[in-house]
Amino acid sequence: MDWTNPYPSSRSAVLGRNMVSTSHPLAAQAGLRMLQSGGNAVDAALAAALALTVVEPTGCGIGSDAFAIVWDGRELHGLNASGRAPRAWTPERFQGRELMPDKGWESVTVPGAVSAWAELSAKFGALSLEQVAAPAIHYAREGFAVSPIIARLWELGRLRLGDQPGFAQAFLPDGRAPLAGQWYRNPEQADTLERIAASQGRDFYTGELARRIAAFSREHGGALDEQDLAEHRAHWCGTISQAFGHSVLHEIPPNGQGLAALMALGMLEHAGIGREPVDHVDTVHLSIEAMKLAFADLYEHHADLEHMRHAPEHLLDEGYLRERAALIRRDQAGDPRHGLPGPSGTVYVTAADALGMMVSFIQSNYMGFGSGVVVPGTGISLQNRGHGFSLRPGHANQVAGGKRPSHTIIPAFAMNADGSPQMSFGVMGGPFQSQGHVQMALRVLLYGQNPQAAADAPRWRVTGGRGVAVEPDFDPAVVQALRERGHDIQVESGSGVFAFGGAQLILRQGSHYVGGSDPRKDGQVAAY
Prior knowledge:
The protein is an alpha+beta fold. 35% of the residues lie in helices and 18% in strands. It has helices at 25-36, 41-55, 113-124, 129-142, 148-161, 167-171, 187-198, 202-206, 208-219, 226-230, 258-271, 281-301, 312-315, 318-325, 432-446, 451-456, 476-484, and strands spanning 14-16, 19-22, 65-71, 76-81, 144-145, 183-184, 235-236, 240-244, 247-251, 347-352, 358-364, 374-375, 380-381, 412-416, 421-427, 460-464, 467-470, 488-491, 503-509, 512-517, 524-527. A 7-stranded antiparallel beta sheet has the order 1-20-19-15-14-9-8. A 7-stranded antiparallel beta sheet has the order 7-4-3-11-10-2-21, with helices on one face. It is globular and about 60 Å long.
């Protein structure tokens, strides 16, 4: 069968009082099943997240990291479930390298996603974790048909990671990646999910699963051990925020990179964004320039919050953002450097229910299948978040044992100025995510586009210096106008479109919600 779709298509936004939006139809349906069974938005988000480890292993796994923002009907909560480096990691361990490894055991930090599932379920869930995990366990044991997009990403993973410990046994049946439409089962992953659900995650960090992970690490010269796993804790960290128009955008504090989105939006306020239409060259140019300035600061100052030399509130200081915004020229692209403030791979799920609870949840391996390491007999694929550390001596993000790496995955949440919830949303795609947040916030919060239109709209991505990548359907006239201002524009096609991520959004409208989901990665909104 020819799985290509040569014709343009459009979607309408989805409306309902209970809603799940994520990147795979089976996961969206798993979440909706929880809502229809008496569960709440947290149960729905978790059911979808667990299902995604099975049906979209190209973006996440049991060994992923995770973050969440939850509106419980009264207040906003932020959860950081990213893991720390093994205690034995030191700069000397990686001496002679220019970059941290991006595959194998030397890229694996303590996985945090399981702790996120357990924490969210215990604090907010209406159903048991066993009920929530049931759809994922079913898909793993009984199987599912691999979608065309996932099949394509799976083959890319085979090419990059096929020689990594445990990868072929788990993910390459008959020695190759599954084809589109092929039925795939992972019964070992089903068994592991059952153990995790029955123990509320404890088995993963202190039980038999933890011992198997640590033993496989030792077998292949890895540093991760039983103590590293046992010492892991998810952290209720709150949020950081930035006023923007009539909204307030919330992000997880560092080590998540949501700080860059808040900085860019703050600069755009001072730069006078909103005078021209959303797709006008002036709007796009200003947005790109603000994002470049935010990234210049991010890459210099960002790290685990415990190790940052300049606190987020200093980087978000109104005077500092005004000063940075003043560097933007409306007629010319810049190549900015970092400033100095005052004192000092991925899947996304959003869900909302009729009682008002809203969840913004994200988990990721980082690069596709992550490290490529899969613990034999468990279906546990491990992330490669260690690659996010710096090897630059003295940098705030320099690798060290027990330290969290700078993280790309970030859930977002917008509140109205009166303190009521407005929108939960996220955009997958590595370092693109903060750029995606800025573009979604502009389209929905400032320009009033519906969530589906915002998800469908062509996107741009800052690539370094004056470099900007745009999607193939970007307006050619705007592309030309940007080039005339000095931007080095690259129109990406083919596999490059995966670098623009996939957006999922749920906007609250009185007593119901409006949802949008990105067709770039099989996104679907399920509602009733």
